[in-house]
Amino acid sequence: MPEDRDWEAYKVPPTRTPVSERTTSVPNPITFVQTVFNYVVDAPVTFVREWIERQQAKNKFYYYHQKFRRVPDLSECLEGDYLCFFEAEAQWRRDRMVDQEIVEIVRERLGACRQREGPNQFQNCAKEVEQLAQVTKAYQDRYGDLGVHGNARTCLMKQKHRMMEERKAQANASQ
Question: Does 1 have pLDDT greater than 60?
Fold first, then answer.
């Protein structure tokens, strides 16, 4: 396109809708209603919403970084202290979920190592295999044979029985 356009050749076509000329001094009721709506409804709502957003921006809450305080273990609860029992049960469930995730993360690391190393996985992933064996053994010792409906009390009893068996084995070995 040339720089010096011939504006006479490319005239803007005339608009088909005529320009409304105000013939009355009475304001348009639609603009009046819009203005009233903006000041009565929209402005306060917008102000409150922006104020809430500013308050939330000051106090960010990341639910995935929530830190629970450690509560006493079930063995430390007094008899009849049902609130302590409930808190200990909730703490045990959180600990179990954390332990499950630890096992899953170590398992994923081993899978990634095997994928990365290919045929050399037996030599180069030995450390990950050993770590997975340790983690799964610890998880199995603590939570194994509890089933789906396992709870803190059955886990504590399992731990107590395991400790008693270890003491008996140690006593038999020393004699």
Answer: no
Give the side-chain half-sphere CA count within 13 A for 101: 6
Spatial neighbors of 106 by CB under 8 A, at least 6 apart, are: 128, 131, 132, 135
Do 162 and 146 meet the contact criterion of CB atoms below 8 Å apart?
A: no
Interatomic CA distance for residues 90 and 92, integer angstroms = 5
Domain ranges of the chain: 27-63, 82-174
pTM of the model: 0.58
pLDDT at position 98, please? 93
Neighbours of 128 (CB within 10 A): 19
What is the spatial distance between Cα 134 and Cα 128, in angstroms, rounded to a whole number? 10
Contacts of 18 by beta carbon, 8 Å cutoff, 6+ apart: none
- Do 139 and 103 touch, CB atoms closer than 8 A? yes
Question: Each residue of 25-80: pLDDT tens digit?
Answer: 777 889 889 999 999 999 999 999 999 999 888 887 777 777 778 888 888 999 99
